[in-house]
Amino acid sequence: MIGRFALGEIVPLAVWTRNSSDTPTLPVRSPVAAVYSGTALVLTQSLPIADRYGVTGFFSYGLHLDARFTTGPHSVIIHYVIGSSSYLESQDFEVVAGGNALGAGIARYYIDIPQANVVLLQTDAGKLLRRRNPRVE
After folding, report:
1. Distance (Å, rounded) from C-alpha 62 to C-alpha 68?
2. Which one of 3, 14, 111, 115 is most buried, by most CB atoms within 10 A?
3. Domain locations in the chain as residue ranges
């Protein structure tokens, strides 16, 4: 199991492609990860190579948990082809309650202007949010 994550977090998907003799080998094309919630396909994503010349056959991708993901267990099936042989790798993670699909706030700036109070918030998903007249309760 990869772990437990809330909405807005990043799930690290990674695979080290190996041939039948367990030697790291580059596949014919990038591995493809299919993410399932139960039996429903949530998304498919091609995994980019992590370090082409430093580590042979290591592919990774940071999967952002957005509004497409529901609370509960998810399965990841990673498929790749080396030569004429097809390989599969299975990974699991769980989405737990809480979090925000826009990501967690990593930077905040408060602006006090005559028309309104404004808060600018940057999330770890790369979003920049603007909120007017926020209240703290």
Report:
1. 15
2. 14
3. 3-99, 102-137
Q: Is the pLDDT of residue 85 over 90?
A: yes
Concatenating the DSSP letter of every residue in the chain gives --EEEEET-EEEEEEE-B-TTS-B---SS--EEEEEETTEEEEEEEPPBS-TTTSTTEEEEEEE--TT--SEEEEEEEEEEETTEEEEEEEEEEEEEEE-TT--EEEEEEEE-SS-EEEEEEETTS-EEEEES----
Band (pLDDT 50/70/90 cuts) for residue 46 is very high
Question: What is the distance, to the nearest Å, from the Cα of residue 7 to the centroid of all Cα atoms in its chain?
Answer: 10
Residues 6 or more apart whose CB falls under 8 angstroms from that of 112 comprise none
Nearest to 89 by CA among 75, 78, 74: 78
Could you tell me if residue 102 is left (phi over 0), alpha (psi between -120 and 50 degrees) or otherwise beta? alpha
Whether the CB-CB separation of 16 and 57 falls below 8 Å is answered with: yes
Does the domain at 3-99 match CATH 2.60.40.1930? Answer given as: yes
Residue that is written with structure tokens 């299975």 in the block? 90
